[in-house]
Write a structure and sequence with these properties.
By secondary structure, the protein is mainly alpha-helical. Helix content is 78%, strand content 0%. The protein has helices at 4-22, 24-27, 29-34, 36-60, 78-102, 114-130, 136-139, 142-170, 172-180, 185-213, 217-238, 248-253, 258-281. α10 (185-213) packs across α11 (217-238). It is globular and about 60 Å long.
Length: 282
Amino acid sequence: MTTKKENAKRLGIYLIIVFAFSMLLIIFRKPMSSSHTAEFIISELFCFSPALAALITRKITKEGFRDMKLHLHLGGNFRWYLLAFILPLLCFAATYLIPVIIGGHTDWLGGFTPDNVISGILTLAALSFVQGVGLVGEELGWRGYMNRKMEPLLGTFGTCLLGGIIWGLWHFPIDISYYLEGGTLSYSLETAFGRLALLTCFGVFLMWLTKKTDSVFPAVIGHYMFNSSQSFFMMLFEKGSIPQNADIETSADAFEYIPMVITAAVFMILLLRDKRGENITQ
């Protein structure tokens, strides 16, 4: 049986490696800005660094490579795959559509025809299995490794909170690069703290999906949809008749925390449902 000391050691090694990789975005900022090849290589290393860190840590600590959650486990879990796909869509539908409707701009929704919506959703579904594979690079590390080492040390609540903060901080080199390239420090910090809050809430959901299905792939799909849903809605807006001076992004900013609220609500419902089921079986 793995002791807490061993878990802490493996977790520490993993975090040192994954954050060392993240520093590449700052160290090689200038070459990345002048070379597409350098930008591609460093960006890919950054994206896959959680998986690389997990694999390196497993090798260094002689933990081995078993139980990496790289199985689909579709039997009995299809509903959780579906939830991983649908929940981000619902979150960003609320974020973008509510301010438009409240603002009396329903005429902007001309592109939201049944054909466009269905076609777009089917495209997202196909891409979530193809392009989403790249996000295994993150989920194999965060949900498939870090969360599992952290939970015996901090419990579920502590893992959800600290795991989300760590996931958000890993993105900090992206946020601070705006400042290093001539942007304002206040904007970079505002972006960083907003990301921390959002990723902490969404990371809880992805962690729950991984534990529920014993697979990282539902989290991969949820992560992909989280990244792509915003583009999906902007594409539909662009197919309608929107005035040139319309600023949908600014309108959505007032509702930017809706995804957190919806995700937290859904998670609490599912958590209470699981708890009730456990009490019944006891």
